Amino acid sequence: KSQSARQLFLKVEEEKAAWELSSSKRMDDERLSWESKNELELQQVLTREKTAWESHMIQQWELRVANEKSSWEQAANADYQEKLHHQKSEVELALQQEWTSKLEHQRMELQHQFEMEAKRRMDEERDSWEALKEEEL
Predict the structure, then answer these.
(1) Which three-class secondary structure string do you get for the chain?
(2) What is each CA distance from 52 to 22, 48, 61, 79, in whole angstroms?
(3) What's the distance, Cα to Cα, between the start and end of the chain in Å?
(4) Are 33 and 125 in contact (CB under 8 A)?
(5) With the C-alpha atoms ordered 62, 64, 65, 69, is the resulting torsion angle positive or negative?
(6) Taking a C-beta distance cutoff of 8 angstroms, is the pair 34, 121 a contact?
(7) C-alpha angle 32-36-42 in degrees, rounded to nearest 5
(8) What's the Cα-to-Cα distance from 22 to each of 15, 27, 118, 123, 134, rounded to whole Å?
(9) What share of the chain has pLDDT > 90, as a percent?
(10) What is the pLDDT of residues 42-93, one digit of tens each?
(11) Residue 75 backbone phi and psi in degrees, to 5
């Protein structure tokens, strides 16, 4: 009897270890799949936001260039032309810095949202897994 009980105990322990390993692998696979999907979604959102922002900036730039061009055509002397060129460079730099700053801020916000959602989902999965484990015990 003692030998049979010991064998049964060892078999149960083996099955328990196999189940835990299988569950852990399944959770890892699901987490990797979820992270991959969310990374792709994040990249798509960033790409859409970047495209929309670029389009907006191009429209603003075209408007500013049109306004500046009108002023340039009225300018007759080289000093005035040089000053306008310098101002144009400053405007380009300011727009580029503004765009970069806003895009980086947006990226940070989206990354933070992604990380919070990932943490929440991982916590839910861990809690669910632990509840299952406790039910099995």
Answers:
(1) CHHHHHHHHHHHHHHHHHHHHHHHHHHHHHHHHHHHHHHHHHHHHHHHHHHHHHHHHHHHHHHHHHHHHHHHHHCCCHHHHHHHHHHHHHHHHHHHHHHHHHHHHHHHHHHHHHHHHHHHHHHHHHHHHHHHHHHHC
(2) 45, 6, 14, 37
(3) 24
(4) no
(5) positive
(6) yes
(7) 140
(8) 10, 9, 22, 19, 16
(9) 50
(10) 899 989 999 999 999 899 999 988 988 887 777 666 677 788 789 989 988 8
(11) -80, 135
- Tally the residues of the chain: 137
Between CA 47 and CA 38 the distance in angstroms is 14
For tokens 């670029």, what's the residue?
54
- Residue 32: name the closest of 104, 109, 97, 122 by CA: 122
Exposure string for 73-110, b = 16+ CB within 10 A, e = fewer: eeeeeeeeeeeeeeeeeeeeeeeeeebeeeeeeeeeeb
- Res 59: pLDDT: 93
